[in-house]
Design brief:
The protein is mainly α. The protein is 71% helix and 0% strand.
Length: 114
Amino acid sequence: MPDPPATSEPKKFEYLPPTPDLRRTLNLMNPETSKQKLVRRCKEQPLIPIGSLCTAGALIYGLVSMKRGDRFMSQRMMRLRIMAQGFTVMACLAGVFHTAKSQRTKSKAEVEPK
């Protein structure tokens, strides 16, 4: 088998512009700032920030109660914190399932012509 000539140039890849779907997915058309993304995400799934704030509030108030020596309120706030964390985790899971379901129905609608 003959060897390729040593002077041959390697093949160059041609530039392929991103497709509109890829641009939309990567958000190249309209990049958003971190603040805009936070606001958008809070509007999409409002239960997650609410649960996070409740968790942080219960934790802070529980620690303050612990420092004051109020065992009853401290214990109550720590229990509330656990419930708020559970609520936040459930809200995250519900958001993931909802997003997956909506993307699946959206992709089915694009594939099936009407």
